[in-house]
Amino acid sequence: MKRNRAAHILITAAFAAALLFCACPAANAQDQTQAAESETRSRFVIESADYMKYDRNTKLTALRGLVRIRSEESFIQADEVTVNEADNTLAAFGRVVIEEGDNTIIGSALYFDNNNDYFELANPQGKTTAPDVDGTIYYTGRLAKGTSRKIKILNGSMSTCGPNCRKEYHVTAKDITIYPDNKIISRKAAFYMGAYRVMYLPVHVISLKDREQYMPEFGYSKEEGWFVKTKYPYYATAAVTGLALLDYMSEKGTAWGAEHDYYSGRFDGKGHNYFKTLNEKDTGRVSTTIDQWQEYKIGDKTSGRVSYGRTDTYNIYQDRSRINRTTLNATFNRDIRRIMAAAQPGAAPVSGAQKRRDSITYSLSEQDSISKSRNSSLIVNQAYSFAKSSFNYNFQMTESSFSGNPTDEEGTLTTNYSKTAGIYTLSVKTSKNFDMDGDGYIADNSRAVNTILPEVTLALNSEFLNRLVPVKNEATRPRIGLNVTHGRYREGSRNDSYSIRRTAVESDISRTFKLSKNVSFTPTQRYKQFFYQTKDAKYALENNSTLNWKLDDFSSLNFNYTRRQDAGGAPFRKDSFGESNQLSGTYRIGKPRTQFSLSSGYNYEIGQYQPLNMGYTRGVTRNATLDVKTGFSLDSDLWQPTVTTLKLARKNLEMNLGATWDTERSMEMTTAQVTTRLTRNNGWQFDIRAAYQDPRNQPFIREWVATKTRCCTQVQLAYSAERDEIKLNYWILAFPGQRVGIYQGQDGLRLDDSAIPTQFGGQQ
């Protein structure tokens, strides 16, 4: 199936055009949603008041005292309230409190339009959070206005430091727009650490969910020199964030571009557009990157994602150096679900389990340079789910070419059917590879099974098989399993290979015999036999016997003998394991504060003993545990290294001491490790990792971390000798990824927003 290059260019252009213009209707869709909700809002409900007066002519209700009014899920408390029944509004004075879920605003005067869910509050002091937001935002200002989804504060200030915390930092701005479950947009924002202003930004955006933040980054590295990297949010709304990308690197060069994150109302999904050009003055390399993707949802059944990426690079000092890379991916899913009855009488039915899924996936990867290459694939899948059965088919077509060679096009069709009944499970599988371009070549045709027509497997479950062996005592009932598989297989194409019919019978049976009160014996046998139409029959046999002997209340002895036999050499086999004959044994002692184990084994095929392994664990005190492990080689009469570990846990201290000793050389210590965590009541936490190795080639102190956690911020100083770096990080809690840190390492000094990864809890 040939496709010309013009067709692919048209397809790529169509996807790119759809991505570029998908953000436009977001605002219109949002306005329509708000208008529809305003028509369904109920009237005010007066829950309490010390005094109430109603004027029928003006339809005004005057309330005084401890006034409490409910509207939908919001509550309003005030000293004085006037309710206008005609237009469903109110005006409140005195100490006004608005509550909605976990969000609270306090002010001195309020105007509230219930139909449009709009309010204006003077001198607001409030807090806001959302289910997916980790933390609470506290704010104050001259005036707050908006809706429950959008709060705009004029001449405002915000922080995550609560009223009872010392205000370690805060942000003041001309206006602050809070979308409680999405982001915060501040204009003319000034950042204060304590009483000192440390930064000013014309526009600043804080995401409450994504780890990606829009803080400038600056520093120094050997490769880039002194650098300033900026993501400036020149356009910010609830649905769209537009970023201007400007990078300056004194040694490397400059970069510029734009990035947009948005929500498309037309496609009901998130979208992303990215463009950036880098000019490297030290190498002459120029690169341009484009990245676009769009998620979409059409109705309640169809969803998908389309992405397009392109990278163009060339060197101004080299001829024929241009390299163009293009990727295109598109996924379409359509889910059909069962309709279930409503949970409550009168409610609408709801969607249940998935009944059918249709999916199409297309991917393209293309490189255009001195040598050209192109790879594409198309996958069509349809899956059905029934009460006790399922069926799906999958067709995949691949196309590849390289350096002017003829295009290779192949296809694969696979179907799977499965049915589960009370006593059996039946599955049917077919597979066929297609040489779509007629070149007589199917990938890996010398080894792969290119045709399965069909493979049928019948598995009888224990409920049916146990009926064949009736027993009076359920505890002594044997465990039985039986699978029968029959298939027709072909290795290569029809012209150069022949098909083989194969039947495989696999049985599995085991039973536990109680020899005495403390002794049990469990033999297990697994047998698999292969029958071929044109080949000799092959088999695989495994016998396993386990003897458990409980010596007393604290000790036990276990022996296990395993014998495997395999005829081998059968085609289409993936579970060949040859022949083996092995015996192993373990002795255990388990007391409340003491555990001991001794184990070994012997392999008869190679005539070799397994090491005699010993393990000892002892609770030294209530807070300390000692663990010792070692072994002895019975074949070479040599002791293995001894490993000791001491764990200590107290109220504010956790410590692990580990050491490895050369048992053969008079217990000389070869390595040692120490990890310590000390927590203080004043909020400080100290983590130290030290290690010793002979010969000593690294510092003893490998890593240390000092962390101070306060009400709304966290300070961390970390050092790593293995990475030769030191970091000073400052976190603003509740804002994901909102971190500022100074990083000193092999790359130089820079301002960094990532935490040092440690074994004491990982990246924070």
For the termini, the CA-CA separation is: 52 Å
Helix content: under 10%
- What is the C-alpha radius of gyration, as a whole number of Å? 36 Å
Number of helices: 3
How many β-strands, per DSSP? 49
The main pleated sheet reads as: 35 strands, antiparallel
Estimate the strand proportion: over 45%
Taking pLDDT < 50 over at least 5 consecutive residues as the criterion, the unreliable ranges are 1-40, 753-764
Oligomer: single chain
Category from helices, strands and their pairing = mainly beta
Q: Mean pLDDT score, rounded?
A: 81
Name the shape in a single word: extended
Task: Describe the protein in words.
The protein has 764 residues and is mainly β. 4% of the residues lie in helices and 63% in strands. The protein contains 3 helices and 49 strands. The chain has a 35-stranded antiparallel β-sheet that branches. The longest helix has 16 residues, at 5-20.
Write a brief structural summary.
By secondary structure, the protein is mainly beta. It contains 3 helices and 49 strands.
How is the secondary structure organized here?
Blueprint: H1 5-20, H2 26-39, E1 45-48, E2 51-55, E3 60-71, E4 74-84, E5 89-100, E6 103-113, E7 118-122, E8 125-128, E9 137-140, E10 143-146, E11 151-159, E12 169-179, E13 183-193, E14 196-207, E15 217-221, E16 225-236, E17 240-249, E18 253-264, E19 269-280, E20 285-298, E21 302-315, E22 323-340, E23 350-368, E24 373-385, E25 389-402, E26 408-420, E27 424-435, E28 451-460, H3 462-465, E29 479-490, E30 499-510, E31 513-514, E32 519-532, E33 538-550, E34 555-566, E35 580-590, E36 594-603, E37 608-609, E38 612-619, E39 624-633, E40 638-639, E41 642-649, E42 653-662, E43 668-679, E44 684-693, E45 701-709, E46 713-720, E47 725-732, E48 739-745, E49 748-752
